[in-house]
Design brief:
Elements lengths: L9 E5 L4 H12 L3 E6 L2 H14 L7 E5 L5 H14 L5 E4 L15 H28 L4 E5 L14 H21 L6 E6 L6 H6 L11 H11 L9 E4 L4 E3 L6
Parallel strand pairs: 1-2, 1-4, 2-3, 4-5, 5-6, 6-7
Antiparallel strand pairs: 7-8
Helix pairs in contact: 1-2, 1-7, 3-4, 4-5
This protein binds NADP nicotinamide-adenine-dinucleotide phosphate.
The site of NADP nicotinamide-adenine-dinucleotide phosphate (NAP) has 27 residues, from α1 and α6.
């Protein structure tokens, strides 16, 4: 059985085949983590693996690929069992994978599309927490970071973003709940990240008329995600807002 010493942090990154997840996986690997890279697209994961190997020629197996559709919830449980068998712990969970869903009025949304967005953006992240919490608790400094969106709390331009906005608002509540359940009983620290508009495939499909060269690249956000995953990171249940480089607290209505 392979096992990584505690000095090598084991990091699961969902949605690692492209975009923000890929950039985060590379940055975590460059920081010395063993990355477990999850997505559906085998080719994208293999390219990432090649890049991580080029970054870490000193390490025989610097990454593990986990081709998986996050809507397959029993597969998430099996992943938890595999991580348990191989390392007995998980140090970092980056819940980044997301689905945009249809940008259309609520009454036009197809129920299947609604279910898919909720499955990927909300339920899969809950299933990851459910399957991986025991492993994060085995880490000396478990860190969980989930990628949300400004759409969750937007006060204008909300029309036609229904499924996505609803799912990200639910994700925010899920993650804050997990933070509250771990803060006094474990070393786990849990954060949300708002990336703002970044140059990815999802952004291009949401904003087809936009010039992508005007947007920041996921590689600029990646070092911030690495910082949120570090043992030195101490805040929990808060939102890191990348466009303004600030940590925000949630507040109840007055
Ligand atoms: P992206 O380039 O489209 O990447 C999305 C990732 O999620 C891909 O790796 C995709 O992999 C994975 N994924 C989607 N459905 C999946 C499924 N069913 N099972 C497993 N993996 C799945 O988009 P991105 O912009 O990097 O998005 C990453 C996160 O940032 C998302 O949560 C998104 O909501 C959030 N976000 C992005 C922006 C932005 O401007 N880019 C702004 C705010 C928030 P496969 O297709 O290979 O499975």
């Amino acid at each position: 059985m392979n096992s990584a010493p505690h000095s090598t942090r084991v990091a699961l990154v969902t949605g690692a085949s492209r975009g923000i997840g890929r950039a985060a996986a590379l940055a975590l690997a460059a920081a010395g983590c063993h990355v477990v890279a999850l997505a559906r697209t085998q080719g994208g994961l293999e390219e990432l693996d090649d890049e991580i190997r080029a970054l870490r020629p000193d390490v025989e197996t610097p990454a593990t690929l986990a081709p998986c559709d996050l809507r397959d919830f029993p597969a998430i449980d099996r992943l938890g069992e595999a991580l348990h068998k191989r390392w007995g712990r998980l140090d970092i969970l980056v819940g980044n994978a997301g689905a945009l869903g249809p940008l259309s009025p609520l009454h036009h949304v197809d129920p299947k599309q609604w279910e898919e967005v909720m499955a990927v953006n909300v339920t899969a992240n809950w299933r990851l927490i459910r399957a991986l919490d025991p492993l994060l608790r085995q880490s000396q400094a478990g860190r969980a970071v989930f990628v949300t969106s400004g759409a969750a709390s937007r006060t204008e331009l909300l029309a036609y973003w229904g499924p996505y906005a609803v799912s990200k608002a639910a994700l925010d509540a899920l993650v804050r709940t997990y933070a509250a359940e771990t803060v006094n009983t474990s070393a786990i620290r849990v954060m949300l990240v708002n990336p703002g508009p970044l140059r990815t495939r999802m952004r291009a499909s949401a904003m087809p008329g936009e010039d992508p060269t005007t947007l920041r690249a996921p590689e600029e956000l990646a070092p911030k995600i690495v910082a949120l995953c570090a043992p030195a990171w101490s805040e929990t249940g808060k939102l890191y807002d990348f466009p303004h480089d600030r940590v925000m607290s949630f507040s109840a209505p007055d």
